[in-house]
């Protein structure tokens, strides 16, 4: 039995709007449950639309207050119909007209955190994708672009800070009252999803930025009082982002002010509203005592991401939500490039690819697989996915690799010039690059329309007599929901051939593209001729194509590449591949009577990496990190037993420890140089290495191991080392673990953002008692089901960060998630739906767990009155 389906929106059914809105005058009176929004919209018929179409405005849960007016005259009740979800005027005036309407809102009762709501008392908004219709009736679609003037009025004591998009125009007191107002004007036409408004009592961090043409922009970051000293890093990241976009893309900021507001209740990471970004405070607040290196780099990336949206998303927006990757994939690509420039490029690439494989490849291999540009959706909120974002970014990177950096920059310039001020499509975007490069990109566009991760099989052969090295390539894209058969894709494979002592060979290949092979047929054969000796091939360097690559490299070539490849990514990849193979063999051995594989080659490779003292510690940390449980599950693909995967990893760590203990300890001790904490790449690399080494040093999981981790925990003078130690210690059943957890909780009591780490660590403990622990933690005074960050840390941490316990064979882990999804759905459907991501690979589980997962999914499906968000995902999961 499947829940009823809301009807699908289809890309093929796109129609231009029948009406346009050029300008909006808003007057927002913030007054608790008596909040009112007056909107005066300048409307006109779209000459490209249907001539006699009625005016249909979108609404969601709205209540009209007072009469509707057209051009200053009240509209008779018989001339329109109004419901919670729409407002219809069958016969509006033919010429341009002004529509005035007032809606009544109760922001504190808005638990969906979409539209106008309150977070710790602050009034704030979230409109992407369809939240503006929860504020007023509107043509709430991204191809309707209007300028806005917004007057906000509020009690001065309750909300001394009043912000909206654009530039400030005026402000003042309201005579004879305790109230005040501010007026903001945004001269750039924008879609309603970029609207924002904030009213509250907030502390402000101020700075300024001089743009490339010499204009001064006032920068403001608003946070809860007492937290200003945690906003400095975000401000620094903002200024670096603004400079970088000028230098790398020629993009200058365009308003007089740029404001960021941090709120503690937010469904996503952050939002790029024009001139007024609203952030989940997780991506703003950081101090050495509260935030980890990962938090700092997350802040840097998200600040950059939202800022970069000003050009890729705001100045040029999306025609419709099918084009979401037009802004998101491109902007993720831009923020990844920024991070690569700010930190270490290879380390950034490795961690991006790790993330891509762990989340997007998983998504692409299961029931939620969809193209980077989907063709239909039932609930757009469910398409803010790793596929749209991260695979979307990979597609841009492949495009750049394919046409070259110079043509890519030309194409970007053309895109900015041609589509500034417009709501664009993927076709228009791609057209800029085919013009700039002179290359036909029709087949390349399959990356946007075909779901699934392509597999490329590579076979090499050597003809000693003729001195010819041959590479045979074969590609296939697996079937995905709704797409049974696939066409061959354009796959750009960066490569290099190495000669005997590790020197790169410069020989033309038969396809003649320099050190790039562009695979565009199902099969292909490339020859290199006139070679004195069989070369060693390094393929898909830097992960130039987002594919699953299967090679037949002999062991000797792998060892060679691990030592000599001048692409750090591929040096890391060879070791990962080899380790993955050994771990998968161990998994099979653990589940059968087969003997355990020989891990001597792994030990040797790890020893070599450890001995390489000139290596960047951040890179060494990546080299020494085993493939994750999720990675292995994906590689195994079917009949997955998470316990066996967990045990295989632990056993390998134990053999590494047995063989390399002295080296590991020596290296570990060398990382603890007493230096003041600086959240830069070098320090972060050293600390990442320290925790990876600590994890290996404690692989026996005995009392002595617990002491080693505990020692780092108590002596840590920064949150990275402290949480690193606590994460390791959490995996060890010990009294010390509970002591450390208690100490952490009392030290950070009341600080939800810091306790999120504490919740997540405990949720990930691979022990049978964890489910009960999680249930107990839900009663903790700092936990709240209404705060998305808390829910994601504790419940999401359990479902997505604890493979062995979430998938318990007795089904209790699944059942726990199902109950919480149903309960949360009544409050906040988006957050509830996100949790269901944990089911993205349920069919790959072994039969007992799979049956339990299905039971839980069916239970959700049958629980009645589900939101469109949860309904859509559950029914897709079960299809
Ligand atoms: N557009 C935001 C971003 O990626 C994400 C977001 C989507 C935020 C929907 C809120 C709601 O930058
Ligand atoms: Zn974005």
From TrEMBL:
Residues 102-194 form the Aminopeptidase N-like N-terminal domain. The keyword Hydrolase applies. Residues 233-444 form the Peptidase M1 membrane alanine aminopeptidase domain. Transmembrane segments: none annotated. GO terms for molecular function: alanyl aminopeptidase activity. This is Aminopeptidase N. Its EC number is 3.4.11.2. Pfam families: DUF3458, DUF3458_C, Peptidase_M1, Peptidase_M1_N. Belongs to the peptidase M1 family. InterPro entries: Aminopeptidase_N-like_N, Aminopeptidase_N-like_N_sf, PepN_Ig-like_sf, Peptidase_M1, Peptidase_M1_dom, Peptidase_M1_pepN, Peptidase_M1_pepN_C, Peptidase_M1_pepN_C_sf. Keywords: Aminopeptidase, Hydrolase, Metal-binding, Metalloprotease, Protease, Zinc. It catalyses: Release of an N-terminal amino acid, Xaa-|-Yaa- from a peptide, amide or arylamide. Xaa is preferably Ala, but may be most amino acids including Pro (slow action). When a terminal hydrophobic residue is followed by a prolyl residue, the two may be released as an intact Xaa-Pro dipeptide. Its cofactor is Zn(2+). Gene3D superfamilies: 2.60.40.1840, 3.30.2010.30, Neutral Protease Domain 2 (1.10.390.10), Peptidase M1, alanyl aminopeptidase, C-terminal domain (1.25.50.10), tricorn interacting facor f3 domain (2.60.40.1730). PANTHER family: PUROMYCIN-SENSITIVE AMINOPEPTIDASE. NCBIfam families: pepN_proteo. The keyword Protease applies. Residues 556-878 form the Peptidase M1 alanyl aminopeptidase C-terminal domain. Residues 452-551 form the Peptidase M1 alanyl aminopeptidase Ig-like fold domain.
């Amino acid at each position: 039995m499947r829940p009823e389906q809301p009807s699908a929106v289809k890309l093929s059914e796109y129609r231009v709007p029948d009406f346009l809105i050029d300008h909006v005058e808003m007057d927002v009176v913030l007054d608790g449950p008596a909040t009112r929004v007056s909107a005066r919209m300048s409307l006109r018929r779209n000459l490209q639309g249907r001539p006699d179409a009625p005016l249909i405005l979108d609404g969601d849960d709205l209540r009209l207050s007072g009469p509707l007016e057209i051009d200053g005259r009240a509209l008779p009740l018989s001339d329109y119909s109004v419901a919670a979800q729409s407002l219809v005027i069958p016969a509006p005036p033919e010429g341009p007209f002004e529509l005035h309407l007032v809606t009544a809102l109760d922001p504190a009762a808005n638990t969906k955190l979409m539209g106008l709501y309150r977070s710790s008392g602050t009034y704030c908004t979230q409109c992407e994708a369809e939240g503006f219709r929860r504020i007023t009736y509107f043509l709430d679609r991204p191809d309707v672009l209007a300028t806005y003037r917004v007057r906000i009025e509020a009690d001065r004591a309750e909300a001394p800070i009043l912000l909206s998009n654009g530039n400030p125009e005026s402000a003042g007191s309201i005579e004879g009252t305790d109230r005040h107002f501010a007026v903001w004007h945004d001269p750039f036409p924008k879609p309603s999803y970029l609207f924002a408004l904030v009213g509250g009592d907030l502390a402000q961090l101020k700075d300024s930025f001089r743009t490339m043409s010499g204009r001064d922009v006032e920068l403001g970051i608003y946070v809860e009082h007492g937290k200003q000293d945690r906003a400095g890093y975000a401000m620094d990241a903002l200024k670096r982002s603004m400079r970088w976009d000028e230098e790398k893309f020629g993009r200058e900021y365009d308003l007089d002010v740029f404001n960021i507001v941090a709120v503690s209740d937010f469904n996503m990471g952050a939002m790029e509203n024009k001139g007024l970004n609203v952030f989940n405070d997780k991506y703003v607040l950081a101090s050495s005592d509260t935030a980890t290196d990962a938090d700092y780099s997350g802040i840097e990336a998200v600040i950059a991401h939202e800022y970069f949206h000003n050009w890729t998303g705001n100045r040029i927006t999306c025609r419709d939500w099918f084009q979401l990757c037009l802004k998101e994939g491109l902007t993720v690509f831009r923020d990844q490039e920024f991070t690569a420039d700010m930190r270490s490029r290879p380390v950034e690439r490795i961690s991006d690819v790790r993330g891509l494989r762990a989340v997007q490849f998983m998504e692409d291999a299961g029931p939620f697989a969809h193209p980077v540009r989907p063709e239909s959706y039932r609930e757009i909120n469910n398409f803010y996915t790793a596929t749209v974002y991260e695979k979307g970014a990979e597609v841009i990177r492949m495009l750049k690799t394919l046409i070259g950096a110079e043509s890519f920059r030309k194409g970007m310039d053309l895109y900015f010039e041609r589509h500034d001020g417009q709501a664009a499509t993927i076709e228009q975007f791609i057209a800029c690059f085919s013009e700039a490069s002179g290359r036909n990109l029709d087949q390349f566009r399959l990356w946007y329309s075909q779901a699934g991760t392509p597999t490329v099989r590579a076979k090499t052969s050597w003809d000693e007599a003729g001195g010819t090295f041959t590479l045979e390539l074969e590609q296939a894209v697996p079937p995905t929901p709704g797409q049974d058969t696939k066409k061959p894709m354009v796959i750009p494979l960066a490569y290099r051939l190495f000669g005997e002592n590790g020197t790169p060979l410069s020989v033309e290949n038969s396809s003649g593209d320099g050190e790039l092979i562009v695979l565009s047929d199902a099969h292909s054969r490339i020859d290199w001729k006139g070679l004195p000796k069989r070369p060693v091939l390094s393929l898909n360097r830097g992960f130039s194509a987002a594919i699953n690559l299967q090679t037949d490299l002999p062991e000797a070539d792998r060892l060679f590449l691990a030592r000599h490849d001048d692409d750090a990514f591929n040096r890391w990849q060879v070791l990962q591949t080899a380790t993955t193979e050994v771990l998968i063999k161990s998994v099979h051995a653990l589940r059968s009577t087969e003997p355990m594989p020989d891990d001597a080659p792994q030990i040797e490779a790890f020893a070599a990496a450890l001995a390489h003292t000139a290596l960047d510690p951040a890179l060494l940390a990546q080299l020494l990190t085993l493939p994750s449980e999720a990675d292995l599950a994906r590689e195994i693909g079917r009949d997955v037993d998470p316990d066996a995967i967990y045990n295989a990893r632990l056993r390998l760590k134990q053999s590494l420890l047995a063989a390399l203990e002295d080296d590991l300890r020596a290296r570990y001790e060398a990382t603890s140089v007493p230096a003041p904490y600086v959240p830069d790449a070098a320090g972060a690399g050293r600390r990442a290495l320290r925790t990876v080494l600590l994890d290996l040093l404690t692989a026996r999981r005995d009392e002595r191991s617990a002491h080693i981790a505990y020692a780092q925990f108590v002596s840590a003078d920064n949150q990275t080392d402290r949480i690193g130690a606590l994460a390791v210690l959490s995996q060890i059943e010990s009294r010390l673990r509970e002591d450390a957890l208690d100490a952490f909780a009392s030290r950070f009591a009341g600080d939800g953002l810091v306790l999120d780490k504490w919740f997540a660590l405990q949720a990930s403990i691979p022990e049978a008692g964890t489910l009960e622990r999680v249930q107990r933690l839900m009663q903790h005074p700092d936990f709240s089901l209404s705060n998305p960050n808390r829910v994601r840390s504790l419940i999401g941490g359990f479902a997505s960060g604890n493979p062995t316990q979430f998938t318990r064979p007795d089904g209790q882990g699944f059942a726990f998630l199902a109950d919480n999804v149903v309960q949360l759905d009544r409050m906040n459907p988006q957050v509830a739906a996100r949790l269901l991501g944990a089911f993205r690979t349920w069919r790959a589980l072994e039969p007992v767990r799979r049956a339990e997962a299905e039971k839980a999914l069916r239970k959700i499906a049958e629980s009645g009155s589900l939101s469109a968000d949860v309904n859509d995902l559950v029914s897709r999961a079960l299809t």
